[in-house]
Amino acid sequence: MSEIRIEHAKKVYSGDNVVIPDLSLTVKDGSLFTLLGPSGCGKTTLLRMIAGFNSIEGGSFYFGDTKINDTDPSKRNIGMVFQNYAIFPHMTVRDNVAFGLKQRKVPKDEIKERTDKYLQLMQISQFADRKPDQLSGGQQQRVALARALVINPDVLLMDEPLSNLDAKLRLEMRQVIRDIQHRVGITTVYVTHDQEEAMAISDRIAVMNHGVIQQVGVPRELYHRPRNEFVATFIGKTNMCNAKLVHIDGVATLVLGEVRLPMSQLNSCTDQDVRVSIRPEEFIKSGEGPFEATVLDSVYLGSTTDYFMKTSFSDRIQVTVESTFEENVRPGETVRLDVNVAKINVLSADGQRNLMEGVA
Ligand SMILES: Nc1ncnc2c1ncn2[C@@H]1O[C@H](COP(=O)(O)OP(=O)(O)OP(=O)(O)O)[C@@H](O)[C@H]1O
């Protein structure tokens, strides 16, 4: 059992710099859990606390039922992969992968068998006798992963493992990591500041800001029902606008500029000022649509085109539509827009709470 449980973790650097005030989370056995957040929010700090490289100023860390706060890092049975590979340059690929097994004084035959298995699993058998400087970045990261997994760790910790790779290799390697994690079924904590990478790779994601978890959920949940404005804007792109929620004939209605959108699912909410989050792809160009919008600019991205438009409720919104062979609207033109009301998120005026939470 290698579920990771963290209860009320606290991290303080140099006396009074509280980086993590009070953080709790559970990583389910065999799942890939990502810590996602902007630079400096405390992701690496938390990962190092799990690994035992950082002191813990408060709270409890468990692997299964075992409290590990005071367990030496070398006794936590952890595999680690960092962004800078951290493989030994003077050793061959095979010796790098076998390193942890030799240290643990595993019998020679078994070292060969287990090393071969992971060289094969990571598809690097053909490089076994090469030194790391004869490998590409992606291949080096495969070696690092094989070396981390060959010791049969209870937990795998990965800190921005793809950030040194070029864009194409990053996409390839995130699939490799996902596949291998599934196959080996190892409980994994993955750190990244790249929201797209987090969405592609994770079973569950914790979005962090200033050492505080803003929301934990499956990728789809975070995208469609962000808990607050920070999550709505950090995950994917969105248009944030001010609006009012009022009841008209008993039906909760969103007043967005001059347009009124009935939202009966919010009937139980009081009348109030609100913040509204609408993803760019939830606007639909439609002659019948209630919103009038003036095109300011457009960016062609191949399969989709981003339009920037001025409306009565915002000076600049982004609208993403499927590209057509010929550009169908140009800057200066006026169009009508509809919106997919079911996908709108209505937040409290301070952006701290999603009024739609619990609404299907
Ligand atoms: N050893 C240290 N001593 C003092 N402060 C530190 C130390 N390590 C990190 N910090 C501070 O703690 C905060 C969190 O840092 P951390 O590296 O955990 O963030 P992060 O979310 O992993 O960021 P990044 O994505 O840039 O790596 C930052 O403000 C950082 O300056």
Concise synopsis of the structure shown:
This protein has 2 domains: 227 residues, Rossmann fold (3-Layer(aba) Sandwich), CATH 3.40.50; 111 residues, no CATH class.
Overall description:
The protein has 360 residues and is an alpha+beta fold. It has 2 domains: 4-230, P-loop containing nucleotide triphosphate hydrolases (Rossmann fold, 3-Layer(aba) Sandwich), CATH 3.40.50; 238-348, no CATH class. Helices cover 23% and strands 35% of the residues. The chain has helices spanning 43-51, 93-103, 108-121, 137-149, 167-184, 195-201, 219-224, 229-234; strands spanning 4-13, 17-27, 32-36, 58-63, 66-67, 78-81, 155-159, 187-192, 204-209, 212-217, 239-248, 251-256, 259-262, 272-278, 283-285, 291-300, 304-311, 317-322, 334-339, 345-348. The strands form 4 sheets. A 6-stranded mixed beta sheet has the order 6-7-8-3-9-10, with helices on both faces. β11 and β12 (251-256) form a beta hairpin. α4 packs parallel to α5 (167-184). The longest helix is centred in the middle third of the chain and has 18 residues, at 167-184. The relative contact order is 0.12. The mean pLDDT is 93. Keywords: ATP-binding, Cell membrane, Membrane, Nucleotide-binding, Translocase, Transport. This is Peptide ABC transporter substrate-binding protein. Residues 4-235 form the ABC transporter domain.
